[in-house]
Design brief:
By secondary structure, the protein is an alpha+beta fold. It is built from ten helices and 13 strands. The strands form three sheets. It has a seven-stranded mixed sheet, sandwiched between helices. A four-stranded mixed sheet has the order 3-6-4-5. It is globular. The C terminus is likely disordered. The structure holds adenosine-5'-diphosphate and magnesium ion.
Length: 318
């Protein structure tokens, strides 16, 4: 970027997040140096948000920063990894001190909340775009993938589905929402909460997991493909806002993106562990939406079975 790149980095990004005990060298040299503690494996992921594609250009800088980190944290949660550090590559159309300060403050808030450290990155001039590479830790072989599900396993989803998609539809003028719900939907869209609280539960009980970033139907299909299974889910069991159910807008729960909830499969023998989890975690309820089967992918709607294996099948019921 410009000659002041170094001062931008020093001023805004030198001290973001909670120092990781594993970092040997952080921002300021040509590269960072990090160790991996004995008995752990490193889990890495990367996601990019582009202005006008992944967020509206007028989104607040703090919300952009939060979401850029949150979508990466959500990938770690789905793998049952604990966040450790991240790298930030940011492309900026201009140096706007106010914007950068709000962005850095937003980034710092979320990095501290989830206890990880910004250890390096890149800064350049161009259309607004933010890439974050994240790294987490998991005890050797305790990570959870999309591939371990078995027929008979319970299918669970955390939180609520569809609100972020409704928020986006509202923002784009495609739907009208009552005041209170509108606030919650915009919050879901702009401030997704990565489900790191599920990491220990997933390590102990989940056979497979994925984060719901592109809509339940498509993301669950990834588990089915990787696990060589089918699934039967029940529309009436989907965790949605009552307003969404009342207006029969289930397509937002099944097909819209940006929920960043966790969908996982859990062997039936752990049913009581799921119940104990739910007694202690009202804010991150795990709802059983169905179960894994040998083959096929169906949605129960009343007494009818809708085939979800053909993409968009559910739409015929709205
Ligand atoms: P180089 O030109 O060798 O790639 P840079 O000038 O891009 O080095 O970066 C200098 C230092 O600042 C490096 O440690 C790099 O990781 C860090 N850095 C650059 N941009 C960012 C950023 N947006 N956030 C955090 N660290 C950054
Ligand atoms: Mg550079």
């Amino acid at each position: 970027m410009a000659q002041d790149e170094f001062s931008i980095i020093q001023h805004y990004f030198a001290d973001v997040g909670k120092p990781s005990p594993n970092t040997v060298l952080t921002i300021g040299d040509d590269a960072a140096v990090v160790g991996i503690p004995e008995g752990f494996q490193q889990v890495v992921s990367m996601d990019t948000l582009i202005s006008g594609v992944h967020f509206a250009a007028d989104t607040s800088p703090a919300d952009i920063a939060h979401k850029a980190l949150a979508v990466n944290l959500s990938d770690l949660a789905a793998m049952a990894a604990t966040p450790d550090w991240f790298l930030l590559s940011i492309s900026l159309p201009r140096v706007d001190a106010d914007w950068l300060q709000q962005f850095a403050d937003g980034l710092r808030y979320t990095a501290e909340r989830f206890a990880l450290q910004l250890i390096g990155g890149d800064t350049c001039r161009g259309n607004l775009s933010i890439s974050i590479q994240i790294a987490g830790l998991v005890p050797v072989a305790r990570f959870v993938t999309r591939a371990g599900g078995n027929a008979g396993d319970l299918l669970l989803v955390s939180g609520l589905l569809g609100n972020a998609g409704l928020g986006l539809a509202y923002q784009q003028g495609r739907v009208e929402l009552p005041d209170d719900l509108r606030r919650r939907c915009l919050q879901a869209l702009n401030r997704p909460q990565p489900r790191l609280e599920l990491v220990d539960f997933l390590r102990s009980f989940a056979s497979a997991a994925i984060d719901v970033s592109d809509g339940l139907q498509g993301d669950l299909a990834h588990i089915l493909h990787a696990s060589h299974c089918g699934a039967r889910i029940d529309r009436a069991a989907l965790p949605v806002d009552p307003w969404l159910a009342q207006h029969n807008l289930y397509q937002y729960a099944l097909g819209a993106g940006d929920d960043y909830e966790i969908c996982c499969s859990v062997p039936q023998k752990y049913r009581s562990e799921v119940e104990s989890w739910n007694r202690l975690h009202a804010d991150c309820h795990l709802t059983q939406i169905g179960e894994l089967t040998d083959a096929g992918f169906t949605l129960q709607v009343g007494n009818q079975q809708v085939d979800l294996a053909t993409s968009g099948g559910f739409r015929h019921f709205d």
